[in-house]
Specification:
There is one protein chain. The protein is mainly alpha-helical and 294 residues long. The chain has one domain (54-266). Helices cover 64% and strands 0% of the residues. The protein contains 10 helices and no strands. The protein has helices at 42-67, 76-104, 110-122, 127-150, 160-175, 179-187, 193-225, 232-243, 248-257, 271-287. Helix 2 packs across helix 6 and helix 4 (127-150) packs across helix 5 (160-175). It is globular, with a radius of gyration of 19 Å. The structure holds fe (ii) ion (FE2) (2 copies). One fe (ii) ion is lined by residues 59, 89, 92, 169, 173.
Length: 294
């Protein structure tokens, strides 16, 4: 596809003019899940699946938190970005809900899991605190997205539908990574700079704690449901996936820490070169007829 051409009705957005394209893509994972889809390895699969379980409630929280300040935003470009951000997150939610329903069929009590995640997120009180935690989580998802695009070998031997879904999600997290941050700048404009800084850095710690805790807990729960022993060996294997090989959390550390700079802004950076081929690929993918969105 010529990158300058607009995306048609399947893709919904006008990609030529939009920094944050809306790509309505279905991956069909809900209809045909693959067991041990990641490298034929149950621990790696559980690591990603646990993150998927977090995402629908997490992304609804992001959308709500950003929209709570939508009326304070006067810049027309940022107002458009908020709409595009919400559309991208809503499509992610739909696809991860389908993905998670397939996990439910394996015996995981999904309603209970979603309820626990909602309860955890409900411990964040206040509009600005919710937005701050969203900013932290969006930075974290952008870091993870960057690593996914930079090291495609991590998913190279995985089921292609899951690889596509995670790559699409990674790309779009990078594309909209500045939106919540910019809304936070508007929302915190009247605070002293030091206070806004400590608010977002403190919220980042909360966000990191939530993600790490949910990912560990849910991955172990999934392994148990799937009939694997959750012995100390399994726990070490899971920590190794996070911190050793492929080591998502080890690999993001430098990018993650950039957030602590007082003048940090999530501008487009080194990831653009990794993102561009995938932008072209998924723009084209969005133009093709989609399966139903089950
Ligand atoms: Fe997302
Ligand atoms: Fe996001």
């Amino acid at each position: 596809m010529n990158h300058a051409e607009p995306v048609d009705s399947n893709g919904i957005g006008d990609e030529s003019e939009t920094r944050i394209p809306k790509r309505n893509i279905s991956f069909g994972i809900g209809r045909q899940p693959a067991p041990k889809w990641c490298d034929d390895n149950e621990v790696r699969t559980a690591f990603f699946d646990a993150f998927s379980l977090f995402l629908p409630e997490g992304e609804r929280f992001f959308i709500r938190s950003v929209h709570a300040y939508a009326d304070n935003v006067t810049d027309p470009r940022l107002r458009e970005d908020i709409k595009a951000f919400s559309a991208q997150e809503a499509y992610h939610t739909r696809e991860h809900e389908a993905y998670n329903r397939a996990i439910q069929d394996e015996g995981l009590p999904l309603a209970d899991v979603y309820g626990r995640i909602r309860k955890l997120l409900a411990t964040v009180k206040g509009k600005l605190e919710c937005l701050s935690v969203t900013v932290g989580l969006e930075h974290l998802t952008a870091c993870l997205g960057y690593i996914t695009l930079k090291y495609p070998e991590i998913l190279a031997d995985s089921d292609p539908r899951y690889r596509e879904l995670w790559t699409w999600h990674a790309l779009e997290e990078i594309e909209h990574k500045a939106v919540a941050f910019e809304v936070f700048q508007v929302a915190s404009a009247k605070l002293p700079r030091w206070q806004a800084y400590f608010l977002r850095c403190g919220a980042m710690l909360t966000a990191t704690h939530y993600i790490a805790r949910m990912q560990l807990e849910l991955a172990l729960e999934l392994l148990q449901v799937r009939g694997y022993a959750t012995s100390w060996k399994t726990k070490v294997a899971l920590l190794w996936v996070m911190l050793g090989t492929p080591g998502y959390y080890r690999r993001i550390i430098w990018y993650y820490l950039q957030f602590l700079k007082p003048n940090f802004f999530p501008a487009a950076g080194a990831e653009s070169a990794y993102a561009q081929p995938w932008r072209d690929y998924f723009n084209e993918r969005a133009m093709k007829p989609q399966d139903d969105h089950a």
